[in-house]
Amino acid sequence: xxxxxxxxxxxxPPKLPDILKQYIKAAIRTQPHDLLSWSAxxxxxxxxxxxxxxxxxxxxxxxxxxxxxxxxxxxxLIHQLGREGYVRTSVLYEKWLGLTLNKCELxxxxxxxHYRGKVDIxxxxxxAAGHLCKTLSATMTLxxxxxxxxxxxxxxxxxxxxxxxxxxxxAELDCGPARQDEIVVQDIILPFGERESKLWSIPxxxxxxxxxx
Length: 213
Known about the structure:
Layout: H1 16-30, H2 35-48, H3 71-81, E1 86-88, H4 89-98, H5 103-112, E2 118-120, H6 121-132, H7 136-147, H8 160-172, E3 182-189, E4 195-201, H9 208-211
Antiparallel strand pairs: 1-2, 3-4
């Protein structure tokens, strides 16, 4: 048996310092809720040559609620998936969970537009932006900032047909953040035997005792 008696006898792979340096910088910028799960997916992406789940820069505030979506995380998803076209829901879930985001939030977003099998990326970005903003105008501003091809800090222009399509989509949907008078009921049995999240609104005038159910 060969025993190690001194530091010079320990072999350090030449690429290890740079790999660890890049990983630490990525973890600090991204601030994932579940560092261990995020790290596993990060190295999986690096090994496979895929775009890793890393923010461009540190986001403030870091997060309102652990595992919640933020504009920074949405930027990462766009960077991984692209701005146009379609993506399979399985791939979207993989990227979403790779960022250690709350699965129930994604369930609710996909349920709003009844996506099954594949998702229009631009429409998903718009719905996700609506989940982050309180007004339609604020949502469209964020959508333009997310989908623009211009440098950061520019005018954030997007093609007019995109804007019109996404504006109409959002105007027809209630994709804002959940209100206090709403209850999210998980694992509702829907037709075709599928289990999904469904949003139930409590009618106005219901007593506080029932709202606290």
